[in-house]
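Worked example 2:
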Amino acid sequence: MLYTIAVILFILWIIGLLTTHLFGGFVHLLLIAAVVVLLFGLLTGRRSS
């Protein structure tokens, strides 16, 4: 489940790159959130399906 959330956040980040003038700094917050979720999933070692 963590990987699904990270992928969704990553896709939103890419969409945000296309509309930077609308979101501004929010785009970078999405990227940071996606990285944090991925790192948390890797460090805890949980395998979600």
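Residues 2-44 form one domain. Helices lie at 2-18, 20-23, 26-44.
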